[in-house]
Design brief:
Strands 1, 2, 3, 4, 5, 6, 7 and 8 form an eight-stranded mixed sheet that branches. The protein has a single domain, classed as Roll (ph1033 like fold). It has helices spanning about 25-30, 110, 130-150, and strands at about 10-15, 35-40, 55-60, 65-70, 75-80, 85-95, 105, 130. With about 150 residues, the chain is of the alpha+beta class. It is built from three helices and eight strands, in the order βαββββββαβα. The longest helix has 17 residues, at about 130-150. β5 (about 75-80) and β6 form a beta hairpin.
């Protein structure tokens, strides 16, 4: 898969620190073909650009692993984080959004097999780079997971 010069980033969500009460509504909107965007802290703000690929991992809570993907939809900007402190953030426009409390996600035990184990899937900081040599395998695994999870 040719990424056309885009990079891929991993964002983190810890439900113990940040509630997401509208996740079910947003999943429904996405299924109806509507645009769903959220802003996220971004440690890699110097490298990230609109159009870059984004994956979101749940951390600090089981199950841990990937539950969302999309694309960066803004330049980095200064905004308030969950503690009210200013931090670099970006908008992510989702193409897939699952509710980890209700649906199966791509868990760490699967992500930590083979080459993909070289990536930290539960980062301390949100918006870190995913190693370029892992992106093609990650995209294939994510697609396979999405196609087979409900069968």
């Amino acid at each position: 898969m040719d990424t056309g010069g885009t990079n891929t980033f991993l964002f983190a969500w810890n439900p113990h620190k940040y509630e997401w009460p509208e996740i079910d509504e947003q999943i429904e909107l996405l299924q109806q073909g509507q645009s769903v965007k959220e802003n996220w802290s971004c440690a890699g703000y110097k490298k990230i650009r609109p159009g870059d690929r984004a994956f979101v991992s749940i951390v600090g809570h089981e199950p841990r692993g990937l539950f969302a993907s999309g694309y960066v939809a803004s330049e980095p900007f200064i905004g308030k984080n969950h503690r009210g402190k200013e931090a670099y953030r970006v908008l992510i426009e989702f193409d897939v959004l699952l509710n980890p409390a209700k649906e199966s996600i791509l868990t760490l035990d699967i992500l930590n097999i083979g080459k993909l184990e070289k990536q930290v899937w539960t980062p301390q900081a949100s918006g870190i780079s995913i190693k370029p040599e892992l992106v093609e395998e990650l995209e294939a695994l994510w697609l396979d997971f999405l196609q087979t999870r409900n069968t």
